[in-house]
Amino acid sequence: SGQISTLNLRLNFLIYSIRMLSSMIKEHQVRQSAKKESQETKRKEAVLAASNLTQALVDHLNVGVAQAYLNQKRLDAEAKQLHSSAANFSKQTGQWLNLVETFSSALKELGDVENWAKTIEGDVRTITIALENVYKDSQETQSQ
To answer: Which residues form a coiled coil (predicted)?
Structure first.
């Protein structure tokens, strides 16, 4: 009974932990989605800036060389930032994949523990019935 109680406590803790992890994963997915949208907006802005630069160079071939240089410099900085953000996103995605694999493993272990507990419970019932039968037989023998 003590072992089953301890097992139930551990099982409840695992379930709680899994729910918390699931909640954290959902929150992360929402944050990642927002971050991805932000990165997509920045990418579109970078593409638009590059397009604007090209158009300015065509329209004013010999005029505004200094401005084109500044625009290119800004584009380079944005591209570096975008590259850095993409690398961070990739790293975080890898970390979350590892976390999900750990979560999956914990779920499998939880299933194994649950099956073990059911087996133990069945064994305890069998022993209880056997002891009750022995007790009844001894009572009948004593009363005769």
So the answer is: none
**CA distances (Å), 83 to each of 20, 88, 93, 142, in order?**
32, 9, 15, 88
Instruction: Compute CA distances 69 → 57, 63, 133, whole Å.
Output: 10, 12, 95
Could you give the 3-state DSSP secondary structure of residue 1? Answer: coil
Structural domains of the chain, with CATH: 2-143 (1.10.287)
**Positive/negative CA dihedral, 31, 33, 39, 42:** negative
pLDDT digits (tens, 9 = 90+) for 72-95: 999 999 999 999 999 999 999 999
Q: What is the DSSP-derived secondary structure letter of residue 64?
A: -
